[in-house]
From TrEMBL:
Domain TonB-dependent receptor plug: 22-142
Entries under NCBIfam families matching the protein: OMP_RagA_SusC (TIGR04056), SusC_RagA_signa (TIGR04057)
Entry protein name: TonB-dependent receptor
Example of a GO cellular component annotation carried by this entry: cell outer membrane
Origin: domain of life: Bacteria
Localisation: Cell outer membrane
GO MF term (any one): siderophore uptake transmembrane transporter activity
Length: 917
C-alpha cells in the first residue's frame, strides 16, 4: 500500500494574499471544488453544505435560485447580520437582497449570479488570526472565492453539460376527502349537536367522495434542470487569459416557477515588463425567474380536499376555500399570477502591481459591483386575490452600486536561509449606494395588458422610493514571521471607519495575533517521523466586528405622514426614530487552540480546533422612557458566547489502480446568552422565541402540553385547557406558575432549541482505473424545528384540511391521549406540539463516473472526456414531519429553524459530461 503525500507546500488563499499551507497559523479550510460541483444547485453557497467543519447551511427557500443561510461557528447577533463576509476575487460583496418588494414570495439569492464552474478555490476563514484583517465585517467568518485564471500554454477548451430531473423529495401526509368530510361533520356537530351528526355530508355522500383533490399533486411536478459551461484559456509568458460562458436553467418543482442564468467571465493578466503587471477580472450575469407567490405552500396544504381546482357549475377556477375566506385556490394563484424578478449584475476588478525590488511590491486595485433589478407582478381579476380589486399590478426597480479602491504594499525577506518575514500594509475604501422605487395600480378595465398599462388602473397605489448609502475606509497591517519552517507568528491590525455608526463611535480597531509550532520538524521528532509526518500546534486570539445593522441606524429620522388641517389633507413629516450618537459595532473576541496531525506521509491527517467566541455590545432595541416620545432605541447591549470543537479527518490512499479519499467533518457548538440590556434576565421575541440569560439563541418559548382532557376530569383539570367551557377532548397544558389554571401569558416556558448538539459530514471518493464513485452524507443531531405548518394542520376545525394525524383525534369511541377533538372554533395555542426534533441523516450526493483513458483520448485528439450520473438529496432519514428539517424562514440568530410555507427542497437526478480539447 502506497500513500499519496499531502502537499504542505500547497498554496492557500488568505485575506489579501496567499500562504503556503504549512505556514498558516489560523483556522482555515480549503473546500474541494470538485465535491462542491457534484451538488446540483444554482447557488455555490448552498453547495458548501458538509464541506467544511464549523459551517452550517440552512435553506431559506428551496425555490430555483432561492436563498440560503450560512453560519460559521454559530450565530451571535440579535438585531444585526449573521452571514459570513464573501470576498470574490478580492471584492467584498454583500449577500443581502436588494429588492423593491414589488413581487411576492421569497427573493432570489444574489450569489446565484456566480456559476460554480467558474470557481477555482474557496477558502473558509474561521478564527481571528485569519479573519481580523477584514475588521468590522469579519465577526461571522469570511468566505474567499477565487475564480479561474489562465495559464501559459496553447489554448485549452473545456465544455461541461448536464441535464437533470427534479422531484419533490417528500410529501406531507394529509387527510383525503372522506377523512376531511368526517372531520367537518364532527366539528359542526360539536358546535350544534341539535342539527345531527351529518351536517356537512351524509355517510353515503362521504363514501362516494373518493380521495378528492390532492393539492400537492396538482401543484408539484417533475422539473428539468440544465447547465452548460464553456471556457477557453491559455496564454504566453507575458499574457494569460481565461474566458467562460454559462447558461443555466432550472424549472421549479412547483408549477410556473423557474430560474435562469446567462453569465460570462473574462480574466486577463499581463506582465508588461519586468516590473509592472496588470490584470482585469470581469463578470456579467443576467438572472431571473418566475417566483412562487407568498403563502402558496401553506395555501395548498390547507385547501380542503373536497374543493376542486375548477368550478364545475360556473366554469373557470374555484376561487377559494369554500369554508373560509383565508385561502385562495393555490393552483389558480400559481398559474394565473405573473410574479417575476430579473436582475443584471456586473462585478469587475482591475489591478496594477509594480515591483520596486524583488522583495517590495505595490498593488493598486479598483473594483465595481453593480446590480440592477426589475420586478413585475400582476394578479388578474379572474382569481380570488384580484377579483375584488379588479386586478392588481405592481412594478419596481432597484439599483445597487458599490466601488472599491484597495492599495497594498508587501515586503518579503529571507535572512540566513532560516528567517522569513512578510509584511503587508494596506489602505482600502468602499462605498455602496442602494436605490429603489415601487408603484402600482388596481381596478383595471382589462387584464390583458397587466402591469404594462398602469395608467388604465382606476386606483393608483401609493408610490414608494428609497435611497441609502454607506461608506467604509480602512487601514491595515499584517506581519508574518517564520523560523526554519518550525516556528510561525502572525499579527495583524485593522482600523475601520464606518458611516453606519454614531458620530462618537465611527472608528474601531481590530487586532489579532496567532502562533504555531511544527513540532514534527524538530530533531527529537526524527525517530517517529516515518509514522507521524506532521504534528503542529496552533493558537490565536483577536478581535473582529459586525457592522451589518443597516444604514442610518444611529441617526434620528423622520417619516412621511398625512396631517389634516381644516378638512384638507397635507403631507408632512413626524419623528420616527430617536438618534444614538454612541451606536457602535458588535465586537467579537475569539480564542482558538488547534492541532494538526499527519500520519504516514500525510496519507491520514487530522485537524482539531477548540474555540471560544464572546460577542459584546450586541445591538438591541431597548425600551426607553415614554417621556422621550419613543418606545425603543437601538443600543449596544448584551453579550453572547459561542464555544465549541471542530474535527476534520482526511485519508488519501492508493492500492495499484485503486484510489480512495475520505473526509469526515464534525462540529460541536454551544451558544449562550450571558447578558442582556439593562441587566434584564430575559427578553421575549415575538410569539415564539425568548432571549434569556443562560439560554442559547433560537430558544422556543410557548406552552407545554400535558395530555388530553378525558371524561370525568372536567371539574378537576378543565382549568388547564385554557377554555371557558372545557370539554372532554380538549388539550391540556402545564400549569407553569402553579396558580391552578392555564393562561397563555403566564404559563409559557422553554419548549425547545434550534441549536444542534452537533453537525457532521462524511465524504468518500473511490476510483478504480477509469471508473469512480463518490458519495457524501450530512447529519444534524439534537436540534429542534419550529414547524408552523404543523401548527396550522393540527387545527381540527373542519374549515381547512388537516394533517393525517387528525385521523387519531379524540372521539368518544377513541379517547386519544395525544390528539384533541374536532372543534369548529378552536383557539390555537403555540405549544410544544409545533416544535419537532429536527435531527436528520441525509445522503447529500451520490455520483458514478467514467473517465476515458488517456490513450483513447489522444487517438480522438481530445484532452479528456468524463461521463457521470449523480443524485442530490437522494434520501433523508428524519423524524421531522415537514418537507425538510434543514430550513429556516428567518436569517437572524433569534428566529432560527422556523418552517412556515417554505418552498420545499427537491431530489435531483442528473447525467452529464465534461470535455477538454
Amino acid at each position: 500500500m502506497t500513500g499519496r503525500v499531502r502537499q504542505l507546500d500547497e498554496v492557500v488563499i488568505v485575506g489579501y494574499g496567499r500562504q503556503r499551507k504549512g505556514d498558516v497559523s489560523g483556522a482555515v479550510t480549503t473546500v474541494r471544488t470538485d465535491d462542491m460541483r457534484q451538488v446540483a444547485d444554482a447557488s455555490f453557497n448552498r453547495q458548501l453544505e458538509g464541506l467544511a467543519a464549523g459551517l452550517q447551511v440552512s435553506t431559506t427557500s428551496g425555490e430555483p435560485g432561492g436563498g440560503v443561510s450560512l453560519r460559521i461557528r454559530g450565530g451571535s447577533s440579535i438585531e444585526g447580520g449573521n452571514e459570513p463576509l464573501y470576498v470574490i476575487d478580492g471584492f467584498p460583496v454583500y449577500s443581502t437582497v436588494v429588492s423593491a418588494s414589488a413581487v411576492s414570495g421569497a427573493p432570489l439569492n444574489p450569489l446565484s449570479m456566480l456559476a460554480s464552474g467558474d470557481i477555482a478555490s474557496i477558502t473558509v476563514l474561521k478564527d481571528a488570526a485569519a479573519t481580523a484583517i477584514y475588521g468590522s465585517r469579519a465577526a461571522n467568518g469570511v468566505i474567499i472565492v477565487t475564480t479561474k485564471s489562465g495559464q501559459s500554454g496553447k489554448p485549452k477548451i473545456a465544455y461541461q453539460a448536464s441535464v437533470g430531473v427534479q422531484t419533490l423529495a417528500k410529501r406531507i401526509d394529509l387527510l383525503d376527502a372522506r377523512q376531511f368530510a368526517s372531520l367537518r361533520n364532527e366539528a359542526l356537530y360539536d358546535a350544534n349537536p341539535a342539527l345531527g351528526a351529518h351536517q356537512y355530508l351524509s355517510a353515503d355522500e362521504i363514501a362516494a367522495l373518493g380521495g378528492g383533490t390532492d393539492w400537492q399533486r396538482e401543484a408539484f411536478r417533475s422539473a428539468l434542470t440544465t447547465d452548460h459551461h464553456l471556457s477557453v484559456s491559455g496564454g504566453t509568458r507575458q499574457t494569460r487569459y481565461h474566458v467562460s460562458g454559462n447558461y443555466y436553467l432550472q424549472e421549479g418543482i412547483l408549477r410556473h416557477t423557474d430560474f435562469s442564468r446567462l453569465a460570462t467571465r473574462v480574466n486577463l493578466q499581463s506582465q508588461l515588463n519586468s516590473r509592472l503587471a496588470t490584470g482585469i477580472n470581469l463578470s456579467m450575469a443576467q438572472t431571473g425567474g418566475r417566483l412562487a407567490p407568498e403563502g402558496i405552500i401553506t395555501s395548498l396544504l390547507l385547501m380542503p380536499p373536497t374543493a376542486t381546482v375548477y368550478d364545475k357549475v360556473r366554469g373557470g377556477y374555484t376561487l377559494r376555500n369554500p369554508f373560509e375566506n383565508i385561502f385562495a385556490n393555490p393552483i389558480a394563484s400559481l398559474l394565473e399570477q405573473t410574479n417575476t424578478s430579473r436582475s443584471f449584475k456586473l462585478l469587475g476588478t482591475a489591478f496594477a502591481e509594480y515591483t520596486f525590488l524583488p522583495q517590495l511590491k505595490l498593488k493598486v486595485m479598483l473594483g465595481v459591483d453593480y446590480q440592477s433589478g426589475h420586478e413585475r407582478r400582476y394578479i388578474p381579476s379572474t382569481i380570488y386575490e384580484g377579483k375584488a380589486a379588479g386586478g392588481i399590478a405592481s412594478v419596481g426597480t432597484s439599483e445597487h452600486r458599490s466601488w472599491l479602491n484597495e492599495n497594498t504594499l508587501t515586503y518579503t525577506a529571507t535572512v540566513a536561509r532560516k528567517h522569513r518575514l512578510e509584511a503587508l500594509l494596506g489602505l482600502t475604501q468602499q462605498e455602496t449606494k442602494v436605490e429603489w422605487v415601487r408603484t402600482g395600480a388596481s381596478n383595471f378595465v382589462s387584464d390583458k395588458l397587466s402591469y404594462n398599462n398602469l395608467e388604465s388602473g382606476a386606483v393608483v397605489t401609493t408610490p414608494y422610493s428609497y435611497a441609502t448609502r454607506n461608506a467604509l475606509i480602512s487601514t491595515f497591517a499584517r506581519l508574518n514571521y517564520q523560523f526554519d519552517h518550525r516556528y510561525f507568528l502572525t499579527a495583524s491590525l485593522r482600523a475601520d471607519g464606518s458611516s453606519r455608526f454614531g458620530a462618537k463611535n465611527k472608528w474601531g480597531w481590530f487586532p489579532s495575533v496567532g502562533a504555531s509550532w511544527d513540532v514534527s520538524r524538530e530533531s527529537f521528532f526524527g525517530p517517529i517521523s516515518h509514522i507521524v509526518s506532521q504534528f503542529k500546534l496552533r493558537t490565536s486570539y483577536g478581535l473582529t466586528g459586525n457592522q451589518e445593522i443597516g444604514n442610518e441606524q444611529s441617526l434620528a429620522t423622520l417619516s412621511a405622514v398625512a396631517y389634516q388641517f381644516g378638512g384638507i389633507h397635507v403631507k408632512g413629516f413626524a419623528p420616527d426614530r430617536v438618534g444614538n450618537g454612541r451606536l457602535g459595532w458588535e465586537s467579537t473576541s475569539q480564542f482558538d487552540l488547534g492541532l494538526d496531525i499527519g500520519l504516514w506521509n500525510n496519507r491520514f491527517s487530522l485537524s482539531l480546533d477548540y474555540y471560544h467566541k464572546r460577542t459584546r455590545d450586541l445591538l438591541l432595541n431597548v425600551e426607553i422612557p415614554w417621556t422621550s416620545g419613543f418606545q425603543t432605541s437601538l443600543q449596544n447591549y448584551g453579550t453572547v458566547v459561542n464555544r465549541g470543537f471542530e474535527l476534520a479527518l482526511q485519508s488519501h490512499n492508493e492500492w495499484g489502480k485503486m484510489r480512495w479519499d475520505a473526509d469526515f467533518n464534525f462540529s460541536l457548538n454551544r451558544n449562550k446568552v450571558v447578558q442582556l440590556g439593562g441587566n434584564a434576565p430575559r427578553y421575549i421575541s415575538g410569539l415564539y422565541y425568548i432571549l434569556q440569560v443562560g439560554q442559547p439563541l433560537g430558544t422556543f418559548y410557548g406552552a407545554a402540553t400535558d395530555g388530553i382532557l378525558q371524561p370525568g376530569e372536567d371539574q378537576g383539570r378543565g382549568a388547564l385547557t385554557g377554555n371557558a367551557n372545557p370539554k372532554a377532548g380538549d388539550r391540556l397544558y402545564r400549569d407553569v406558575n402553579g396558580d391552578g389554571k392555564f393562561t397563555v401569558s403566564a404559563d409559557r416556558t422553554i419548549i425547545g432549541s434550534a441549536q444542534p448538539d452537533f453537525i457532521c459530514s462524511l465524504s468518500n471518493r473511490l476510483a478504480y482505473g477509469s471508473f469512480d464513485v463518490s458519495f457524501m452524507l450530512t447529519a444534524s443531531v439534537g436540534n429542534d424545528v419550529l414547524n408552523l405548518n404543523r401548527q396550522a394542520l393540527e387545527v381540527f376545525s373542519g374549515q381547512q384540511n388537516a394533517a393525517a394525524s387528525a385521523a387519531e383525534r379524540w372521539t368518544t369511541s377513541h379517547p386519544s391521549l395525544t390528539m384533541p377533538r374536532a372543534k369548529l372554533d378552536p383557539a390555537p395555542v403555540f405549544s410544544d406540539r409545533s416544535v419537532e426534533g429536527g435531527s436528520y441523516l441525509r445522503v447529500r450526493t451520490v455520483t458514478l463516473g467514467y473517465t476515458l483513458p488517456a490513450g483513447f483520448a489522444r487517438k480522438l485528439h481530445i484532452g479528456g472526456l468524463r461521463w457521470y450520473v449523480s443524485a442530490t438529496n437522494l434520501l433523508t432519514l428524519t423524524g421531522y414531519s415537514g418537507y425538510d428539517p434543514a430550513v429556516t424562514t428567518a436569517a437572524n440568530a433569534v428566529d432560527q429553524a422556523t418552517d412556515l410555507g417554505i418552498y420545499p427542497t427537491s431530489r435531483t437526478c442528473s447525467i452529464g459530461f465534461s470535455l477538454q480539447f
